[in-house]
């Protein structure tokens, strides 16, 4: 009898222990997540912006048709899941992408969500509707989409001009929310209405952004948080100090630089911090339409002079990646392997040998120890632009190029680049989706508005189309590597490095995942909860 | 008196007109406008979209037409819409004014309440250790940039108390509200306090050497009575002038302090509006400040004329 009692007591104790563990790990409902925001976004309309300053606070207001799984760090085709769609299918020789839509979903103003909203959104993005966005920076994403057709209220099809498997990846980006038909683009800039886990409450410019829980959210039991409050703090020192002092539950994602991260860890040792690549490449834009950089030898010499590891060491204490256009592996899906990368001029490990070769090219072009080439290195007046520009100027000295820093205010930067009023520029290129279609067409295709250097190679452009239509991932990867290698060899827009940045949160914040190959797609926040 | 008032009123209107012209055209001389900034941020430009946006905001029209629309709107009380937030400009500006006014007021109070007594003490104790210490403090006050002092205060608060005196938009008690403003006001007012102290000291030293001070002492007046009743009363005039001038300079310090302490006041807002080339906000805000200053001068001029009849006849 005694042994039976002992066994029963053991069983009860075990049950208690397990349930305690289970409850401790189970998400809790409630609480307001307090986060600082690095700057005041111009408006609240994701489709009209091109900065993740917009995605972070407003992505929780919306849903996409499909989305990258929010609890996985790497964005991949195989972790795209349905959101406003319930399922999708490629039909018509991969030229039609059809979505079955979720029923019973409501916009935050109570109106029902239907296929008409999807058609409205993408017609506007393609510039085919009466209503227009003030700005439409991602119109080129949908160049292969012929039209959008609906079949009843809950089926919608994207009819393509040719197969483009990566369309699904573009639709899964944080930049691709579905907008309501009944709200004008103007109203979406000031008071966005979505179907997402959080409702917009208010946006005070330069002050704060507030979101509250959507109690009618279609996903049962989500979101866990009662709301999210962003306090806009442009001064980075103040923001970090406020996080350390416990005024905020989380830093602005991917905004903590590597040196600052050490400060945070020393002052708030319990804070959880991660460092991930943000898929923003620091690169050089070269005005090859005017002397001296119309000379391919000088362009190649410049590419050979780069000591990429020195940039990474100075700026990120070694935490950065050397790569081509596409983010290098293991975080990047399409980057060239190291062995291939090192065969490209300027990427070899022997920097001195590269520079000797560069000097020979400079001498061939008529420059040498007695005749230096004077150039202006233009860049935006922001530290992330200015700092590498200074290092670049220093490195160019080694091959008889005397650089002078030309700092340009943001308001004048793009117009200066567009009218080709520069020799060399230090630029940052962020990729919303880790997919070659987004990167190649946007930055290197002839006539693209973002092809700042006007690099135009019709042969390469044909290869862009070939890789874009390829459904076999391995074959496509091989094509992408060849294209990327050629782009670097042509010194189309030499990539210096791919940055890594940090994000921190207090230990009681759970369910946060920082994406490792894009800084634009991971801010739905419906799985985030607070254990306090 | 009536002729004097009309003359002054006319001068005030001419001044305001001049200011409006200067603000308007200076803003347009600065390269780039809101449309350039929006497209620069998006990293592309579509000429048709750009033209549409310029038309929508009315910045495609000739400058003189734009000026006319603005000034007529201003006189009618229609301040237009912010280009950035698309909200009425007045709705954006008004809630921020009291925040900056409180901060500026408290900073001036800090400046006077610290600077004047310490200046008197420094003068009275001339050549002593206390005098030297106070002079070093005042010198450091003049040398320390307010942004650096602000950051130092924030860092020290976090390191020593684990707390941070950052702006609280909804203080629950009067004390909390005071704490919200007191630390940044002290940071920005420290420089003014140092200047006030130095002016008070030198002015007091001059007065303390006057014959009537010696007479007061000879009559057996106490030190406190001599220093504060006889000397300070006569030494305070240049101090008041300096505090008045400092009030105008304060706006520069407030921009930095509002940024460091993250205070959503009008000074930081003005800088942000300039950065975005948000013309309706910048024009109306600067014009509003100009109207307040010009009216204050006008009122003072009128008061002078009331109290000193010579002014209205000679000016």
TrEMBL record, chain A:
GO terms for cellular component: ATP-binding cassette (ABC) transporter complex; outer membrane-bounded periplasmic space. Residues 80-448 form the Solute-binding protein family domain. InterPro entries: Peptide/Ni-bd (IPR030678), SBP_5 (IPR039424), SBP_5_dom (IPR000914). The keyword Ribonucleoprotein does not apply. Pfam families: SBP_bac_5. One of its GO terms (molecular function) is peptide transmembrane transporter activity. Keywords: Signal. It is found in: Periplasm. GO terms for biological process: peptide transport. Residues 1-24 form the signal peptide. CDD domains: PBP2_NikA_DppA_OppA_like_17. Belongs to the bacterial solute-binding protein 5 family. This is Peptide/nickel transport system substrate-binding protein. The lineage of its organism: Bacteria, Pseudomonadati, Pseudomonadota, Alphaproteobacteria, Hyphomicrobiales.
From TrEMBL, chain B:
Gene3D superfamilies: MetI-like. Residues 97-304 form the ABC transmembrane type-1 domain. One of its GO terms (cellular component) is plasma membrane. InterPro entries: BPD_transp_1_N, MetI-like, MetI-like_sf. The chain crosses the membrane at residues 9-30, 103-124, 136-162, 174-194, 235-256, 285-307. Keywords: Cell membrane, Membrane, Transmembrane, Transmembrane helix, Transport. It is a multi-pass membrane protein. GO terms for molecular function: dipeptide transmembrane transporter activity. CDD domains: TM_PBP2. It is found in: Cell membrane. The keyword Transmembrane helix applies. Its main location: membrane. Belongs to the binding-protein-dependent transport system permease family. This is Peptide/nickel transport system permease protein. It comes from Bradyrhizobium sacchari.
């Amino acid at each position: 009898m005694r042994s039976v009692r002992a066994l029963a007591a053991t069983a009860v104790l075990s049950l208690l222990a397990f349930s305690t563990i289970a409850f401790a790990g189970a998400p809790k409902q409630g609480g307001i997540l307090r986060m600082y925001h690095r700057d005041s976004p111009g408006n609240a309309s994701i489709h009209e912006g091109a900065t993740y300053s917009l995605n972070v606070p407003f992505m929780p207001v919306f849903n996409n048709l499909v989305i990258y799984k929010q609890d996985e760090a790497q964005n991949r085709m195989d972790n795209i899941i349905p959101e406003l769609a319930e399922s999708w299918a490629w039909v018509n020789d991969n030229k039609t992408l059809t979505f079955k839509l979720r029923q019973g979903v409501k916009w935050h103003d109570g109106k029902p969500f239907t296929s008409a909203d999807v058609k409205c959104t993408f017609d506007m993005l393609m510039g085919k509707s009466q209503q227009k966005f003030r700005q439409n920076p991602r119109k080129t994403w949908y160049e292969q989409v012929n039209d959008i057709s609906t079949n009843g209220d809950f089926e919608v099809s994207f009819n393509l001009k040719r197969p483009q498997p990566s369309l699904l990846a573009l639709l899964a980006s944080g930049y691709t929310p579905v907008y309501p038909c009944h709200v004008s683009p103007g109203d979406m800039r000031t008071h966005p209405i979505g179907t997402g886990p959080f409702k917009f409450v208010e946006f005070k410019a330069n002050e704060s952004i507030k979101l509250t829980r959507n109690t009618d959210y279609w996903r049962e039991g989500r979101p866990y948080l009662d709301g999210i409050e962003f306090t806009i703090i442009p001064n980075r020192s103040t923001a970090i100090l406020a996080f350390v002092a416990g005024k905020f539950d989380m830093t602005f994602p991917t905004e903590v630089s590597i040196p600052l991260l050490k400060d945070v860890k020393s002052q708030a040792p319990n804070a959880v911090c991660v460092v991930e690549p943000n898929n923003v490449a620091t690169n050089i834009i070269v005005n090859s339409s005017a002397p001296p950089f119309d000379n391919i030898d000088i362009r190649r010499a410049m590419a050979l002079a780069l000591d990429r590891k020195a940039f990474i060491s100075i700026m990120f204490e070694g935490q950065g990646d050397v790569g081509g256009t596409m983010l290098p592996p293991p975080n990047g899906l399409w980057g060239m392997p190291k062995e291939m990368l090192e065969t490209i001029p300027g990427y070899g490990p022997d920097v001195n040998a590269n520079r000797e070769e560069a000097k020979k090219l400079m001498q061939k072009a008529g420059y040498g120890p007695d005749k230096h080439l004077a150039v202006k290195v233009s860049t935006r007046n922001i530290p992330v632009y200015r700092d590498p520009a200074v290092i670049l100027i220093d490195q160019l000295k080694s091959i008889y190029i005397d650089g002078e820093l030309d700092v340009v205010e943001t308001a004048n930067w793009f117009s200066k680049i567009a009218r080709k009023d520069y020799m060399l520029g230090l630029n940052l290129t962020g990729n919303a989706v880790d997919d070659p279609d987004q990167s190649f067409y946007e930055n290197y295709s002839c006539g693209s508005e973002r092809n700042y250097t006007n690099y135009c190679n019709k042969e390469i452009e044909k290869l862009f189309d070939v890789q874009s239509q390829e459904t076999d991932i391995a074959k496509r990867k091989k094509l992408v590597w060849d294209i990327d290698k050629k782009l670097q060899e042509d010194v189309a827009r030499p990539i210096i490095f791919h940055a890594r940045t940090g994000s921190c949160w207090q230990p009681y914040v759970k369910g946060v995942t920082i994406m490792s190959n894009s800084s634009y797609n991971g801010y739905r926040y419906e799985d985030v909860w607070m254990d306090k | 008196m009536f002729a004097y008032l009309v003359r002054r009123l006319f001068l005030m209107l001419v001044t305001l007109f001049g200011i409006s012209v200067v603000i308007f055209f200076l803003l347009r001389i600065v390269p780039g406008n809101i449309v350039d900034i929006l497209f620069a941020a998006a990293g592309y430009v579509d000429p048709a979209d750009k033209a549409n946006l310029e038309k929508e905001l009315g910045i495609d029209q000739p400058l003189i037409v734009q000026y006319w629309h603005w000034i007529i709107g201003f006189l009618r009380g229609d301040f237009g819409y912010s280009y950035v937030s698309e909200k009425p400009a007045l709705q954006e500006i008004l809630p921020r004014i009291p925040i900056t006014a409180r901060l500026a007021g408290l900073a001036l109070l800090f400046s006077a309440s610290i600077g004047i007594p310490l200046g008197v003490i420094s003068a009275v104790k001339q050549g002593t250790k206390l005098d030297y210490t106070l002079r070093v403090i005042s010198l450091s006050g003049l040398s320390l940039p307010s942004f650096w002092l602000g950051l130092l205060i924030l860092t020290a608060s976090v390191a020593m108390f684990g707390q941070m005196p950052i702006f609280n938009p909804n203080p629950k008690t009067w004390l909390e509200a005071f704490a919200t403003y007191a630390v940044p006001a002290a940071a920005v007012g420290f420089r003014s306090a140092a200047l006030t102290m130095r002016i008070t000291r030198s002015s007091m030293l001059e007065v303390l050497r006057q014959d009537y001070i010696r007479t007061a002492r000879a009559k057996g007046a106490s030190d406190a009575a001599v220093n504060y009743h006889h000397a300070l009363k006569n030494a305070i005039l240049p101090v008041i002038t300096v505090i008045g001038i400092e009030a105008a300079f304060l706006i520069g310090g407030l921009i930095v302090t509002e940024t460091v302490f993250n205070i959503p006041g009008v000074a930081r807002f003005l800088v942000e509006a300039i950065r975005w080339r948000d013309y309706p906000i910048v024009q109306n805000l600067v014009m509003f400040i100009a109207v307040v200053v010009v009216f204050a001068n006008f009122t003072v001029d009128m008061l002078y004329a009331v109290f000193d009849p010579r002014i209205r006849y000679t000016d």
